[in-house]
UniProtKB/TrEMBL annotation:
May play a role in DNA repair. It seems to be involved in an RecBC-independent recombinational process of DNA repair. It may act with RecF and RecO. InterPro entries: DNA_Rcmb_RecR, Rcmb_RecR, Rcmb_RecR_Znf, TOPRIM_dom, TOPRIM_RecR. Keywords: DNA damage, DNA recombination, DNA repair, Metal-binding, Zinc, Zinc-finger. One of its GO terms (molecular function) is DNA binding. A zinc finger (C4-type) spans 58-73. The lineage of its organism: Bacteria, Bacillati, Bacillota, Bacilli, Lactobacillales. Residues 81-176 form the Toprim domain. It comes from Pseudolactococcus insecticola. Belongs to the RecR family. This is Recombination protein RecR. SMART domains: TOPRIM.
Amino acid sequence: MAYYPEPIAKLIESYSKLPGIGQKTATRLAFYTIGMSDDDVNAFAGNLLSAKRDLHFCSICGNLTDTDPCNICTDETRDRTTIFVVEESKDVLAMEKIREYTGLYHVLHGTISPMNGVSPDDINVKTLITRLMDSEVTEIIIATNATSDGEATAMYLARMIKPAGIKVTRLARGLAVGSDIEYADEVTLSKAVENRQEI
């Protein structure tokens, strides 16, 4: 590995800790940062510190927020009869971008994973059950990822919630728009058949 002065080497090391950032990209980002103006670097550092210091989880839904409760939970125009359950806060952002869903959310902060020692007590399930006890919720939409842990979490939640008489649905799975059947894996194809719709 090439020799870099310690400040650059440390900056490269910091960037390489980010997900999806390899050594080459980390090096490119480090040198780009060094070429930035002092004002831009100070603003960048301030934004990093602010995001770390000022963000916390909403006490109601568990989403990342700088206010408590978050803006979604306090928005009176949102449909309070549905809760969209996701694994992480970034999933809330993805849903909000499409502007199709107008209900509430609940962020689990992970999935149940017996192989990794993650039980229902280790994720944000208790708060969800508490929300359902005295609310007008009639449907829970489970949007965990299509992984074995995501499926296990969805099944666990369904078993917990259904006895309360609340409808539990799961996001449809299947072929992506623009994809070819010949390149789809078996699980995707079986889900596409299972979730077929009348036209």
